[in-house]
Each structure stands twice: as C-alpha cells, then as structure tokens.
Amino acid sequence: MAETANTIPWEKLTTAAIAVRLKAFAPYSKFKVGAALLSTSGEIFIGCNVENASYGLSICAERSAIVSAVSAGHREFSAIAIAADPSAAPCGACRQFLVQFGAKYWVRSLSPNQPDSFRQWTTGELLPEHFEF
Ligand code: THU
C-alpha cells in the first residue's frame, strides 16, 4: 500500500506548487502548471512547464520536478502536488515518468483558486499495467 495520504504535508506541497506555477514559461498555450514533489527524505522539489517554439520539445511541470529531484540525488518519493487552472490530471508521458520511480506514491491535482477540491490518485492508479524495462 501507498504511505497513507493523510501523513503527507499537503499544505506545504500545495503552496509550493501554486507558487512555482507562476514561474511557468508557457507563451504558446498560456496554460501554466506547477508541481511540487516530496522525497521520502522530506525535501520538496519544484518544477513548472517550460514550452518551446518547437512545440514538441515542451516539458511538463511534473517531469521538471522529477528531473530536479533526481539531479539532487533523490529517487524515492511520497507525493506530488500539481497546480493548474483549471486543475489537470497528468498527461500520459508524465504518468510513465512518475511511475518509473514507484507505483505507490500520491498524486494530487488542484487549482490555485480551490486547492481544497482536489483529485487524488496513486501513481499506479494513474497508469495501471505500466511499462517496465
Ligand atoms: N502540461 C503540464 O505541464 N503537465 C501536464 O500534465 C499536462 C500539460 C503543460 C504542457 C504544456 O506546456 C501546457 O501544459 C499545455 O499542454
């Protein structure tokens, strides 16, 4: 089972995701996304979407946060909060990227205006029967 969801410091994660969303570089879609990822060691890593004139090169907030955490030496996670307006469930590529680091941590999607009406899953629920090498 996943670590129980009510031990996660959701308020800290939510605040961090909402704050980093404002740093998003999204001149094409204008859709800003922020993510805050909690390592099992208790540290928070943030990421935002970064778009590119060559649209397909754009990177999502969730993958930015994972890259940031892994670059700092962290590979085990408890939860990720994702802020977008309106709230958005992770895209397929991000689901695969998230589940690479475990099928049992929490994913919460929320909007900055109504952070308490969130949707929440585990990584495994978001991508059942996921690819493993
Ligand atoms: N986006 C994310 O950052 N995360 C998602 O899970 C879905 C989409 C970004 C990618 C692009 O910059 C913008 O949202 C519109 O698709």
Essential attributes:
alpha+beta, 133 residues, Cytidine Deaminase, domain 2, binds tetrahydrodeoxyuridine, 26% helix, 5-stranded mixed β-sheet, single chain
What does this structure look like?
The chain is of the alpha+beta class and 133 residues long. It has one domain (5-126): Cytidine Deaminase, domain 2 (3-Layer(aba) Sandwich), CATH 3.40.140. The protein is built from four helices and five strands. It has helices at residues 10-21, 61-71, 92-99, 123-126; strands spanning 33-39, 44-48, 77-84, 106-110, 119-122. The protein has a five-stranded mixed sheet with strand order 2-1-3-4-5. A hairpin with an 8-residue loop joins strand 4 and strand 5 (119-122). The chain starts with 9 loop residues before the first helix and ends in a 7-residue tail after the last helix. Bound molecules: tetrahydrodeoxyuridine. Tetrahydrodeoxyuridine binds at residues 26, 29, 31, 33, 49, 51, 58, 60-62, 88, 90-91, 94.
Distance between the termini: 23 Å
Fraction of residues in helix: 25-40%
The portion of residues forming beta strands comes to 15-25%
CATH level-1 class: Alpha Beta
At CATH level 2, the architecture is 3-Layer(aba) Sandwich
Secondary-structure-based class equals alpha+beta
Largest sheet: 5 strands, mixed
- What strand order characterises the main sheet? 2-1-3-4-5
Total domain count: 1
- Shape by Cα distribution: globular
Draw up the topology in text.
Layout: H1 10-21, E1 33-39, E2 44-48, H2 61-71, E3 77-84, H3 92-99, E4 106-110, E5 119-122, H4 123-126
Parallel strand pairs: 3-4
Antiparallel strand pairs: 1-2, 1-3, 4-5
The structure holds tetrahydrodeoxyuridine.
